[in-house]
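User: Reviewer 2 asked us to show a designed sequence for the structure in our supplementary figure. I'm pasting the structure tokens here. Could you produce the per-position amino acids so we can include them in the response letter?
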């Protein structure tokens, strides 16, 4: 059996003395670093919140003698819309968009339409019910536009002829910056 000898190396530890002035300098530097990071975060937040930010929601409803009744898109609301139409004799169904400006600066909307992504877009013209275009939406405000459902259904039927499935219909708006926004929610028509 083999034995291994270990040798001990002496280590000298020096005690470092920190003066009060050095400690104070370190504390002031740490506070400065925290304030710099906070200032940078605040500037980034201000930059992100300064502009206008538009959100678009697709709606459907019925046209009445005195205005429009709109409902959000879901199965329960579709049943409610059908019940309203039967009870009150509303025959003209409408589709539309609600544009909400969640930013601070105004948002300019040039036009709105109905689209089947990847196939075609129908930009709603004179039959649109709502503010004239171009429209300016102030920060924290919203605007609603609706139009008869028939052109949207015709677009869906035409898009179904282009594609092999039943394409979803979305709402879209074109902003003054040239950017187009698409609704997250959609509806389909039986083809």
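Assistant: Here is a per-position design you can include in the supplement:
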């Amino acid at each position: 059996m083999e034995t291994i000898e270990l040798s001990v190396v002496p280590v000298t530890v020096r005690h470092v003395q920190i003066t009060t002035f050095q400690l104070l300098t370190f504390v002031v530097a740490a506070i400065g670093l925290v304030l710099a990071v906070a200032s940078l975060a605040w500037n980034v937040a201000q930059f992100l919140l300064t502009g206008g930010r538009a959100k678009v929601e697709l709606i459907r409803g019925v046209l009445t003698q005195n205005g429009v009744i709109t409902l959000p898109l879901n199965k329960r609301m579709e049943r409610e819309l059908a019940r309203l139409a039967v009870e009150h004799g509303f025959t003209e169904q409408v589709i539309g968009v609600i544009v909400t400006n969640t930013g601070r600066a105004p948002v300019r909307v040039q036009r709105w339409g109905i689209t089947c992504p990847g196939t075609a877009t129908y930009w709603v013209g004179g039959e649109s019910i709502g503010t004239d275009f171009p429209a300016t939406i102030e920060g924290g405000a919203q605007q609603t536009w609706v139009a008869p459902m028939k052109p949207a259904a015709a677009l869906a039927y035409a898009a179904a002829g282009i594609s092999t499935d039943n394409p979803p219909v979305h709402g879209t708006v074109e902003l003054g910056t040239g950017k187009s926004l698409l609704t997250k929610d959609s509806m389909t028509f039986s083809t």
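For the response letter, you might also mention the following. The CA atoms of residues 114 and 171 lie 5 Å apart. The chain has three helices and nine strands.
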